[in-house]
Design goal:
The complex is a heterodimer of chains A (about 110) and B (about 120). Chain A has no helices and eleven strands. With about 110 residues, chain A is mainly β. In chain A, strands 2, 4, 5, 9, 10 and 11 form a six-stranded mixed sheet that branches. A five-stranded antiparallel sheet of chain A has the order 1-3-8-7-6, with no helix packed on it. Chain A is globular and about 45 Å long. Chain B has about 120 residues and is mainly beta. In chain B, strands 2, 4, 5, 6, 9, 10 and 11 form a seven-stranded mixed sheet that branches. In chain B, strands 1-3-8-7 form a four-stranded antiparallel sheet, with no helix packed on it. Chain B is globular. Chain B starts with a strand and ends with a strand. Classes of the chains: A mainly beta (about 110), B mainly beta (about 120).
């Protein structure tokens, strides 16, 4: 059973701080990793994808991947109240190539 | 507008009803998915149609029946549902590429909020 684990939170950070979201996965052969943001009552929205070890930056977002440790993270710099949402980690499992999602981490950014 | 359109957005149905959910994508993708999202549970993959092949989660009850007439359209036919089937049903699409490359990201529709009474 392929699994993706996330701390469900809630993670609460003050406005302007760095929010750090973590994810581990069980399928060592996975090649593709994604972070989705989901506002309450809405569908998931892709915010970052990462395929290689290391860091990938896009604006205030940085994704970090360590395949040896089977670990992927998302950093949000200068957090804003509008970043308050549930963040879903998704991993492409190798056998069928389908996305497996974690339960999500709820982030709350306090003004 | 994400390029993936789901209808209806909300649906209330009785346990003896038959209804269908519709999904349409205009992204040129070659794979489409049905996910179920229940409260406090991870997104559950129900069905995948990829390159005209169907893959299903064996835990999905037979009262859910998918149909994919072409690469742009996906349906989920519902019959004799139970109250515990009430959830957000999400359609997604992606572009599957040959191994060992990872597949591209999936894009979601707005979802259908289903309530079974």
């Amino acid at each position: 059973q392929k699994e993706v684990e996330q701390n469900s939170g809630p993670l609460s950070v003050p406005e302007g701080a760095i929010a750090s979201l973590n994810c581990t996965y069980s399928d060592r052969g996975s090649q593709s990793f994604f972070w989705y943001r989901q506002y309450s009552g809405k569908s998931p929205e892709l915010i970052m994808s990462i395929y290689s070890n290391g860091d990938k930056e896009d604006g205030r977002f940085t994704a970090q991947l360590n395949k040896a440790s089977q670990y992927v993270s998302l950093l949000i710099r200068d957090s804003q109240p509008s970043d308050s949402a549930t963040y879903l980690c998704a991993v492409n499992e190798r056998s069928q190539g389908n996305l497996i999602f974690g339960k999500g981490t709820k982030l709350s950014v306090k003004p | 507008e994400t390029g993936v359109t789901q209808t209806p957005r909300h649906l209330v149905m009785g346990m003896t009803n038959k209804k269908s959910l519709k999904c349409e994508q205009h992204l040129g993708h070659n794979a489409m998915y049905w996910y179920k999202q229940s409260a406090k549970k991870p997104l559950e993959l129900m069905f995948v149609y990829s390159l005209e092949e169907r893959v299903e989660n064996n835990s999905v009850p037979s009262r859910f029946s998918p149909e994919c007439p072409n690469s742009s359209h996906l349906f989920l036919h519902l019959h004799t549902l139970q109250p515990e089937d009430s959830a957000l049903y999400l359609c997604a699409s992606s572009l599957k590429v040959p191994r060992p490359s990872g597949d591209t990201e999936a894009f979601f529709g707005q979802g259908t909020r289903l309530t079974v009474v």
